[in-house]
Amino acid sequence: MRIELQKRARVSTLFSVLSPLLALALTLLFGAIMFWLLGKNPVSALYSFFVEPLLEVWSLHELAIKAAPLILIAVGLSVCYRSNNWNIGAEGQFTIGAITGSILPVMYPAWHSPLILPLMLILGMIGGALYAGIPALLKTRFNTNEILTSLMLVYIAQLYLDWLVRGPWRDPQGYNFPQTKGFQIEAVLPEILSSGRAHWAFIFAIAAAVALWFMMRFMLKGFEVSVLGQSERAGRFAGFSARRMVWFSMLLSGALAGLAGISEVSGSIGHVQPVISPGYGFTAIIVAFLGRLNPLGIIASGLVLALTYLGGEAAQLSIGISDKVSRVFQGLLLFFVLSCDTLIHYRIRLIFAGAKTAEVKA
Amino acid sequence: MTLSEGPATVPLLSVRGLTKLFGSFAACNAIDLDIAPGEIHALLGENGAGKSTLVKMLFGVLQPSAGQILCQGAPVTIASPGEARHLGIGMVFQHFSLFEALTVAENIALSLDPKISLARISDEAASLSKAYGLPLDPQAHVADLSVGERQRIEIVRALLQNPKLIILDEPTSVLTPQEADRLFETLFKLKAEGRSVLYISHRLEEVRRICDRATVLRHGKVTGACDPSQETPASLARMMVGSDVAEVHRDNAAALGDIRIEVSNLSVPARTPFAVSLKNIAMKVRAGEVLAIAGVAGNGQGELFDALSGEYPVAEDEAIHIRGKAVGRTGINGRRLLGAGFVPEERHGHAAVSAMALSDNLLLARSQSDKKAFLSGGAFSVIRFDAIRSATRRICEAMDVRKSGEDPQAGSLSGGNLQKFIVGRELDRQPSVLVVNQPTWGVDAGAASRIRQALIDLARSGSAVVVISQDLDEIFEVATNIAVISEGSLSKAYPAGTLTLERIGLLMGGIHESHPIPETAHAH
User: Fold this and answer.
1) What is the largest CA-CA distance in chain A?
2) What is the CATH number of the domain that holds A258?
3) By the CB < 8 Å criterion, does A218 face chain B?
4) Which of B282, B257, B287, B246 is nearest to B267 (CA)?
5) Which terminus of chain A is more solvent-facing, meaning fewer CB atoms within 10 Å of its CB: N or C?
6) What ipTM is given for this predicted complex?
């Protein structure tokens, strides 16, 4: 027996719209089964995972803190993916952005000026963009696969950060803890409201999403992205350059990942340490797809994925299971998003033995 | 079916009420067909008439939704190509399935019983190819062979199975007239041995020349059966198209104006191992002229188009002039701004993005040339959707583009209607120079004649038009002057009236007057 995917003659618009919700529902269902198998009450476990974090003001602030880097990175990735460039290394660009953005407060801790914060943000974006420029250069010069190069660069970035905070950047008065000095107050991204910790990164994320939505929807640049993503040849006919698009999309997504990195360090952590991200750069890939590569959809999906992080922490406390559960939920979600989309475009056909198909020519 | 000479014996293969549904669309609708032993039977029809679907069912690639296939009177189910071969049916596809890096013998071995030794296959292939007049070296690598030779491999591969019926899908579409003549001789030999041939084509002259009977399909139904030698090309075309095809009109006396395109010493190295390099190309096209460039597929037409359009600018700026300006190193939009328009060969993924709306596909070609009308917001380049949509409407009306809905996806249009839109998209700008590659490739007869008429009218209104085409009928219909491209070299241009089909055929084979004409060249 063999399973075949047959393209559907017509794609249901209703189900294309419902697909992310369907994926979400299936994720919850399988999450419930998983809790049940772990010997927990599935209803109360799901409640403490997905509902409790939404009931208190402080945890809504935490939600915004976690959603901000996810949305910032994912909207950049969505442009990248729409143009058929597969930047998988946002986690590395996030890390490098955090490092380059932190140069000023770490090297000049005594510099107190309102200029320092904007400069940090710009340096973070430049760092992320340059780091994404490496796979772009390799792709345009040597036709290297950017999926592999951008992914491998993640580990280099993480080890570099690790070496930095254990070596040259370590705070001499820090009791040998591997971290830098705390940033001066001018170098800390301010909070949005006085009611909690959520800082400006969330505003940046919403602004970036709206700006890129406008670009993709109404501007020739967005049209160029979609054309080159669907057919390089047609893009060349239109006079668009696929090579320049590699640079544009990689630098843009790298810059946004870098901005997310420096915002996280400056706004949420306040110093540099060996681990600054619970995998935002990778989770953002799920966010981008769950949001259907649409910047506005990504705002919603970013909040959903942020909730899985919060829920993981909450579940650890209230029902005593590992916070790895949030990884399981993220994996389930990506799996169901992709499979719902596949089933919307294709139907499954089982071909039983007997109808033995010899090699089919043509 | 009533025929002039009905098959007295049991037909080799019969088809009764054969139907194939794709969703609710009937690609083949209750088809009846009889193939007698020892006949060459033509299957005629436009693109999308259901010919390919029908033969795929006969060869076991597709399964019928309803109806019956009878082999020598006995009902059979053909579940796979292997079973079809077993029943004595061989097939030569339009698009060959050969591995370029392997030798002829190795390619043949792939489709046979793995137990047979390569040496034996070589021997048999060599003797078969000799017996049927299909010269072929079993040790040659496929990559080094011409299209005609590659087709011979497919034919020999089919013959090795000793088939009773051979199906040929558009076999001459890739051949020079001389190569086609050789193929016909082979077919007559097969017929003389009592084998049957099912010959799929839309070339009416050929069918009249070599086929004993013809079955005509239109919209998935049999619309006629006839003895093609008793018909005229016009009457066959009527059966195929269903209505009389509008004839293309032109005035011969159009006066030629200034030089609009001038190419001199254009040489371009091959971009990929399988591309053709352009060698020292020179041509001049004047206002009011249609220069048609004939040639067999794969002789550098695509490369020439790329160089003329500026999709791949060339190293030498002086090699190409458009309206007196050196543009060799200028990109496609720079050339468009000089008033040039371009229509590439491939509709899907080159001239148009299938999954995008027609209006988006309008913007695709004209985002820079019509910047003022289609974009606003200065550096932000905000798209003016309303202006683009109304231009799309205008083009669809002017070219009679039939579509479902106001602004459907390009991919949902039939080939002919999409091509009308793509050509109309350029005509709407009234380009002073138009370069078209294969303007009516895979397009139904009605759309084809409309497109050709539009090209002639454009030239008459004072533009210079370059038409690259494989279709000789088309070339004679539209051309003021004709040049022939062969292995990346372009012949000089001859006035259309002074060239015969045979002479073009020779030029297409790379034979110019200065060379002695080899033996193979004189046809029947």
Assistant:
1) 79
2) 1.10.3470
3) yes
4) B282
5) N
6) 0.84
Query: What does A284-327 look like in DSSP terms, one character per residue?
Result: HHHHHHHTTT-HHHHHHHHHHHHHHHHHHHHHHHHT---TTHHH
- Tell me if A112 is assigned to some domain: yes
Q: Tell me whether residues A358 and B367 touch, CB distance under 8 A.
A: no
Residue A335 lies in a domain: yes
Considering only residues 353 to 372 of chain B, which have any Cβ-Cβ distance to chain A shorter than 8 Å? 353, 355-356, 360, 363-365, 367-368
When divided into structural domains, chain A yields a total of 1
Q: Distance between CA B162 and CA B169 in Å, rounded?
A: 19
Q: Do A239 and B367 touch (CB under 8 A)?
A: yes
Q: Which residues of A touch B98 (CB under 8 A)?
A: none
A78 inside domain:
yes
Per-residue pLDDT tens digits for A207-244: 999 999 999 999 999 999 999 999 999 999 999 999 99
Q: How near does any CA of chain A get to the CA of B380, in Å? A: 7
- The verdict on residue A359 lying in a domain is no
CB-CB under 8 Å, A362 with B97? yes
- Reported as a single tens digit per residue, the pLDDT across A92-150 is 999 999 999 999 999 999 999 999 999 999 999 999 999 999 999 999 999 999 999 99
Q: Using the beta-carbon criterion (under 8 Å), do B356 and A221 form an inter-chain contact?
A: no
Residue showing tokens 């050196």: B326
Q: Which domains are seen in chain B, by residue range?
A: 13-241 (3.40.50.300), 259-354+432-521 (3.40.50.300)
To the nearest whole Å, the CA of B395 is away from the closest chain A CA by 18
**Vertex B256 angle, CA B253 and B257, to 5°:** 150
Per-residue pLDDT tens over the stretch B330-358 = 999 999 999 999 999 988 899 999 999 99
Q: Is A233 on the interface with B (CB under 8 A)?
A: yes
Query: Residue B188 and residue B195: Cα distance in Å, rounded?
Result: 10
- Where in the sequence is the domain holding A340, given as residue range(s)? 2-351
Report yes or no: A9 at the B interface, CB cutoff 8 Å.
yes
Of B91, B93, B383, the CB nearest to A219: B383
